[in-house]
From TrEMBL:
This is NAD(P)-binding protein. GO terms for cellular component: cytoplasm. GO terms for molecular function: aldehyde dehydrogenase (NAD+) activity. Gene3D superfamilies: NAD(P)-binding Rossmann-like Domain. It holds the Pfam family NAD_binding_10. Residues 10-84 form the NAD(P)-binding domain. It comes from the Eukaryota. SUPFAM superfamilies: NAD(P)-binding Rossmann-fold domains.
């Protein structure tokens, strides 16, 4: 039997590394042939040691992306949810594959619940809770919303029929990544959002939030997120009729909801214990601090993004980690961030 060729981008990242680790331990792993995009020769060499072929390059190497996508049966794109030229290059390769074989290849693309965010600036948590089953509401989201540029192109390609696309759409992903790719020093261990806030709190020596810290975001753990990727990967190959795709192919990844204040409150406790903050009290970042630490990004970082992964659960996703684990995940993140600052 010929092997299933999988091209994965972002495999050295916090999410993509966990997805690749799971797939390397998949019961059918022997029949998979992995090729990962790697930006550094050093990381490529490390990936080779665990049986993953690599192509050296980045999302700027469009011809390479097209060629790699064309050679694959399945593309798992986890490097950048916003890079339209790269997404188009991958789709071009998949279209060429379809034209050659007559069979639509699979695309598992990573989006994010920032697509449904508002402009709360931390002042309230009063925003629509979007269900991933509500394809009409998702389709009506403005083209200017984050990630929509790539999502729209991906859904269009699915509609044209040359690719079957699934859009995994996480809220904040939390928890330090673990697994063989972390152990060999190839995978980012940390997420993006929480460490950013923690770094700012450590720098101002007082836990901080934006506005009134009342904005709410959906969240899911790194391992639950990787589980959903694997579930979609399995069903897309074995039982595609069980899965919505394209405009009906958004799978929200959430199993907790948190406010900006809650993150600051927990961060404050740890910073005070470490003697970095005088007290555990969290305060709102001043206008100067917002500008200094977050630049123009502060409004984006203080939105609401309220999601229900009804479609994800309907296809069998059973997330384990919830609000308790989210709050518990902040302490080790603070310790790691502080350690990295002290280095
Ligand atoms: N983490 C979250 O909470 C979250 C939530 C929703 C959506 N997302 C989205 O999911 C994607 C992955 O997130 P993540 O947390 O795993 O990020 P990450 O840890 O920063 O990983 C990004 C991965 O993509 C690679 N990469 C970045 N830019 C690239 C480029 N221009 N060309 C080729 N490879 C590139 C990185 O390679 P190197 O090892 O060379 O850096 C790394 O493998 C992002 O697009 C993010 O917006 C993340």
């Amino acid at each position: 039997m010929s092997s299933t060729k999988i091209f994965i981008t972002g495999a050295t990242g916090y999410i993509g590394g966990s997805v690749l680790s799971r797939l390397l331990a998949h019961p059918e792993a022997k029949s998979f042939e992995f090729t990962a995009l790697a930006r550094s020769a050093e990381k490529a060499a490390k990936l080779n040691t665990v049986g993953v072929k690599t192509v050296l390059g980045s999302y700027s190497d469009l011809d390479l992306l097209t060629k790699s996508a064309k050679e694959a049966d399945i593309v798992i794109a986890v490097a950048d949810s916003d890079n339209l030229p790269a997404a188009e290059a991958i789709l071009k390769g998949q279209k060429e594959k379809f034209e050659e074989t007559g069979k639509a290849p699979i695309l598992i693309h990573t989006s994010g619940t920032a697509i449904i965010s508002d402009d709360a600036r931390g002042q309230h948590g009063d925003h629509t809770i979007y269900s991933d089953l509500d394809s009409d509401a998702i389709e009506a989201l403005p083209e200017t919303a984050l990630h929509r540029n790539v999502d729209i192109a991906t859904v269009k390609a699915d509609k044209e029929g040359y690719v079957t696309a699934y859009l995994i759409t996480p809220g904040t992903v939390f928890g330090l990544a673990e697994g063989p790719l972390v152990d060999i020093g190839v995978q980012h261990k940390y997420s993006i959002q929480l460490p950013l806030f923690i770094k700012v709190s450590a720098a101002r020596k007082k836990a901080g939030y934006i506005g009134a810290g009342k904005n709410l975001w959906a969240a899911a753990s790194n391992r639950d997120t990787a589980d959903l990727f694997v579930l979609i990967f399995n069903a897309a190959r074995k039982n595609p009729s069980s899965l919505g795709h394209g405009r009906d192919g958004f799978y929200f990844v959430e199993n907790a909801e948190y406010s900006g204040f809650e993150v600051a409150e927990e961060t404050g406790k740890v910073l005070a214990e470490l003697g970095i903050a005088e007290s555990p009290e969290a305060t709102s970042n001043t206008a100067e601090e917002l500008k200094q630490f977050f630049g123009d990004w502060w409004t984006l970082l203080s939105t609401n993004s309220r999601a229900k992964g009804d479609r994800s659960r309907a296809v069998g996703w059973k997330p384990v980690d919830g609000k308790k684990e989210f709050i518990q995940s902040i302490r080790p993140e603070v310790l790691e961030v502080v350690k990295s600052i002290e280095k």
